[in-house]
Design brief:
Helix 10 links the parallel strand 7 and strand 8. The protein has 2 domains: 252 residues, no CATH class; 147 residues, no CATH class. 49% of the residues lie in helices and 9% in strands. The protein is an alpha/beta fold and 432 residues long. The C terminus is likely disordered. Helix 7 packs antiparallel against helix 8 and helix 18 runs antiparallel to helix 20. It contains 21 helices and 8 strands.
Length: 432
């Protein structure tokens, strides 16, 4: 049985939403409430601010679990906006820079404004790594998704803090060589940054720690999820992202790296939206039912052709979908549709329900060997139709409550002895 909780699902959704708040949003949904979570603040977004220049962005929400701070992950890969790579990814390799201080500053600000207790941290990818690092340094609870490595950065901060100015000057005095002086200057800069980071601690850390340069123990207070085979699982495994050093990062779903990679690339599997959908499926006990069509379902979700059938590229409003409407946007809209009830809907509340209702039924038909010979060869096409219908429900922001057509039940219906014929007729109608 899955140990995914409603809290995990909400924080995964808020880690996704950080990409669509603030500046240069992926989707311009303009929502200040995501389900029951209400946005309470964002980090500095002025283009001349240090946060913007360094590619840092975070947003806070008031939720039923308390105040949540979500840090955005990698947003750009090329050109001058590749700052997420140049000033973010390097943290995973142990380089400590101003982005760590930005995260600590915003955490301090949110904590100061919060009267309910300690702030919960979340984020995806780069954002997940920064959230995990803040949790590790300051003890806040964190639930993170596909996080970049951050323990090397934590070690570097600790070493830099303990590398006192006195020690650095002793080293500098060993030689008047330019290289020695340059190294000493760099060490001093690192020490000063480490002191500034720790001074943002919300515990707070007593002054005597700064006087003696003896730090309190790091605290493990993070939990997290990843999909086997996703980019950081593969690319950064050598940094200890997904081994015994990070036991709190658990695998989602019922499949491993090989099965997942058969259906999608490492980058596909790394996306924040697919995490939300898999968490939703695991939470509600769907995953085992559609396991027989796992490859077909994931392949359809990651298919640009399927997305184009939901909304042709030329018809996508780029003022709303910044990068057009592709498979990633299809998955994102479906992820938002996991919101229950009628409050704070972004892309309705029907798409995800329809998706897994249909996937469950098709998976059960495959397991029970109840498909006709003709339809057995069409499982891939049937799955694409399922995803297209669910995508339409999300794109049209359908609210199923009070809808006599019961769109949340999808387009497949099991019936004694007639499931195959009904399914075949439906496929022809949807394809027409």
């Amino acid at each position: 049985m899955s140990n995914v909780t409603e809290k995990d699902l909400l924080l995964a959704l808020l880690s996704l939403d950080a990409y669509h708040q603030g500046y240069e949003r992926g989707i311009e949904h303009d929502k200040l409430q995501i389900g029951a979570a209400k946005r309470t603040g964002i980090s500095e977004i002025r283009t001349d601010s240090a946060e913007y220049q360094d590619g840092f962005f975070a947003v806070s929400y008031d939720t039923e679990y308390g105040e949540v701070l979500s840090i955005r992950g990698t947003d750009f890969f090329t050109g001058e906006k590749a700052r997420d790579i140049l000033k973010g990814w390097v943290i995973g390799a142990g380089v400590v820079n101003d982005n760590v201080l930005h995260a600590a500053n915003f955490l301090e600000q949110v904590q100061t404004d919060n009267e309910q207790g300690s702030v919960i941290l979340t984020g995806h990818s780069l954002g997940g790594g920064l959230a995990g690092l803040m949790s590790y340094l300051f003890g806040n609870e964190a639930i993170i998704f596909d996080p970049m490595p951050y323990l090397l950065a934590a070690d570097e901060i600790k070493k830099a803090f303990e590398d006192t100015p006195e020690k650095i000057e002793i080293y500098r005095a060993t030689s008047d060589d330019l290289l020695v002086n340059s190294i000493a200057d760099s060490r001093l800069e690192s020490h000063q940054l480490a002191v500034e980071i720790y001074k943002r601690s919300l515990s707070p850390i007593p002054d005597e720690y700064f006087d003696s340069n003896i730090l309190p123990l790091f605290i493990y207070n993070a939990d997290g999820w990843f999909l086997s085979g996703e980019a950081l699982d593969s690319l950064f495994g050598f940094l200890g992202r997904n081994n015994a050093d990070y036991p709190w990062v658990q695998a989602l779903g019922l499949t491993g790296k090989s099965a997942n990679r058969n259906a999608g690339s490492a980058v596909d599997l790394h996306g924040p939206g697919i995490k939300v959908l898999q968490l939703y499926s695991d939470l509600h006990g769907h995953s085992e039912k559609w396991l027989p069509i796992h490859n077909e379902l994931y392949s359809a979700l990651f298919s640009s052709a399927v997305a184009a059938n939901v909304l042709p590229e030329g018809k996508a409003n780029r003022n709303f979908f910044r990068e057009g409407y592709g498979s990633g946007t299809l998955i994102t809209t479906l992820a938002y549709s996991t919101i229950e009830g009628t409050t704070g809907l972004v892309f309705g509340n029907t798409g995800a329900k329809a998706l897994f209702d249909d996937a469950n039924q098709l998976g059960q038909l495959v397991t029970a060997d109840k498909l006709s010979d003709a339809l057995t060869d069409q499982v891939d096409d049937l799955t694409k139709v399922i995803v297209q219908f669910a995508g339409q429900m999300a794109l049209q922001k359908v609210d199923y409550t009070g809808n006599a057509l019961t769109p949340e039940q999808g387009i497949l219906q099991l019936s004694a002895g007639g499931a195959a014929r009904e399914t075949a007729a439906l496929t022809r109608r949807c394809a027409a």
